[in-house]
Design brief:
The structure holds 2 protein chains of 2 kinds. Helix content of chain A is about 30%, strand content about 20%. In chain A, α3 runs parallel beside α6. Chain A has a single domain, classed as 3-Layer(aba) Sandwich (Peroxisomal Thiolase, Chain A, domain 1), CATH 3.40.47. Chain A is of the alpha/beta class. Chain B is of the alpha/beta class. Chain B is about 35% helix and about 20% strand. Chain B contains 13 helices and 14 strands. In chain B, β9, α11 and β10 form a beta-alpha-beta unit. The longest helix of chain B has 17 residues. Classes of the chains: A alpha/beta, B alpha/beta. Chains A and B meet through α4, α5, α6, β6 and α7 of A and α4, β4, α7, α8 and β8 of B. β6 of chain A pairs antiparallel with β4 of chain B.
Chain lengths: ~350, ~400
Amino acid sequence: MNIAGIGIVSARGRGINSLDIALREGWIAPSQIKPRNDQNAFYPAYIVGKETINDINLLKKIRRADRFSKMAVLAAWDAVVDSGIQINDKESTIGIILATAFGPHVTTFRFLDDIIDYGDGSVSPTTFSHSVHNAATSYISKVLNCRGPTLTLTQFTSPIHQALILAQAWLEEERCKYVLTGCVDECGNVMDYICNQKLRIADDGKIRPFNFSASPSAVPGEGSVFFMTTLEKCRNKYCVIIPAPMTNCDTIKKSDIYIIEADGMAGDETSYQDTLPVDVPIGGYAPIFGSIKIISAFHCAAGALMIKKQIKYVCPVQENPYDLNIITKTELSKIEQICCIRKNCANETNIIRLMR
Amino acid sequence: MKIFITGIGGISAAGRNITEHLESFQLMKRNAGTVSLFDTSLSYPVFEVKSPLINKQINKQKNEMRTLSLAMFALKEALHDAGLQKNLSGIKTGVCFGTSVASQLNDIDFYRTYRNTGAADMASVDRFLKGNLAEAVAKSIKANGPSVTVVNACSSGADAIGVALSWLRNGVCDIAIAGGADELNRIPLCGFGALGILSKSLCRPFDKDRSGLNLGEGAGVLILETEKSASLRGKKSALLLAGYGAAGDAYHLTAPRPDGSGLESALRKSFADANITPQDVCFVNAHGTATHDNDKVEGIVLEKVFGSEIKFLSTKGYTGHTLGAAGGLEAAFTASALRECWIPASAGFVQQDDDIPIKPITEQTQINGSFAVSTSLAFGGNNASIVIARVLDHLKIGHDLVKEWGS
């Protein structure tokens, strides 16, 4: 299927141009977050700025929406605008698939605050309705007036991968002409605390994608990415995107560039070592976005932009102990095919192929 | 491509398996009571799975989420019904489950401790991280295909079945385990209470004096299989998943679109998907929550689409509203009813609402048809419709088994 448009909200801004700028600029230090009950400690995290999601014109229709939903709505909206496709969805031609690992947990914890502070019978119905995972999808469909199928899914291993497989199936079945396929996840006090307990947080704020460590360092991140996908010919096509089924074998076809998705979030990264040939340029852009279960979507967006612009972007963190052929400068390049590779601690491989 | 339903499993307050559910339906047993699973100041009746035998098995895995235990319980029945082993590593199997509660990290004790001290034990987090419903089920049966947990609120189970249908038709897997599971939990009890849609008495779907829903818990599972897969292992089934349709309201976070056009669109898409007309449908297992808005919109749409003579019911009078499990359980009941050729009375209904042009069936009714529909509506404006078919000549498993619809 084709990627006809991309929308992105990340710590580095909103929109496809912000992605291009971030990829050219490379690494910058993350924000420092204060934990709830310890004013002396700080956690590094890549947080989406308030100004990034401050779009009054668009969000006035959904004033009550929480941050989770707003990030998703903005990315979805931008993907549609970027595609140039006119939305007139009386015929339900657009479907929506949103993937998330943890859902709107900040709102869920706010609802728990209500229960703890005020009791079971005095909680906010508005907070409750926003704590439901599919609130974001509902807002997207409302803002875009999409009357096609809408689906929210949650998955920890490969959420965007699963969303893309389903989008492809919907298009093949002609359930819709376009599928807005995307993902969103957010940071928050509790999740930051959990990340600090479960992951090895990079004190210097740097994710090192090519260290292939058994206990890699992570920096929590957040954001949203949406792709307008379709089988139709499209004006602003980025590339073809093909999500391959998960595999245990390393039968990865040769590409012009490999994007390594190591971000410190999926545990032991040593198995990446066995996957990569030395002669192919390798990118890894997690240090720009942060560690996040939906990192594959950010990498697909980066890869799609590389193919469209025929540019390979410099790796933001270039520690390279295995002497791989990592991309060391941003330059024009003939790119026909990119392979995004994500491995989990069970040595299962998820591959998304991007083709010109 | 024909997709067979080769196994069915279900657990709720109405029964530990499909047979017990059918007995409860025949006897019009409504096993509601007060909440025993957690402390709450709220006194709404609920449909809890209270069987000591079941709870012993469910609680055996202390580090397992209750929702997952319920799903595994129903899955065991469905796999047995399908003649499948618990290890499916040799078959390309996908797992798609709907849920609501199990998707959230909502452990109040964990959060209270964190809030008070800035630190908390990670046990409940570990349970959550290991408990993504579809991934955990897939791991337990060594399924090697896709796994997705659908979180479309109250239509999650139905939408999960729709996802599985798409996978099978597109060759993503050969067998799909699909349905929904949800546990009774304090968070939705408080939330639905705050929304003012819980009834203080037993729920009365489509009744003039309906006053809201009762929460329930459970799991409903279908084993779905391509014709080739079923044929290869000699599995015979008279039931097929014939179609699925879904449509968004694009209207409101909690209220259905008043004109019901989202539900109507989902129904018509499911008919097109199954290549049938509304006249081919012999009954509808409606969403029927017993809330004022849902039942009004749904009743009006059913009359508009099917006409005034359509036989329909809600099984939520027997199970309560099991949220993410509802679509899975109700698909299981719909398939079972088609197989058994009868549908139960719509429990709780007494008097027709002037605003709803049709009324549900009030006594056990024989049916004699090939297609039935199960509808689901949800928070966020999700509408889903599933078409299940019964083929009359199912003894000839093979290429010419299924007559084309309408011929």
